[in-house]
Fold this protein.
Amino acid sequence: MAKVDNPRAVAGDNSGTEQAATKFAKDALKALVERIERLEDEKSSIAQDIKDVYAEAKGNGYDVKVLRKLIAMRKRDQNELTEEMTILETYAHALGMGVFG
């Protein structure tokens, strides 16, 4: 009887047997992680740029807190913002606050 070699895989030794699907999944995962890392770097850079613009605005005498509120307001739906401002004005008037003229 001839002896049959039956080598068993050793943990971590899959260099010749890695399936294409597994390699593709690993490559896809790596690509996604690298894209996220690049975007995080860009986000950090943009955040720093925004901080610099606010510092410039403050240096030019603008109230940064008010600028932030204006920017948040501009992002909102115009109808919702108008409704909220009308209610705010009504409440302020009812409390005797003359902030809206």
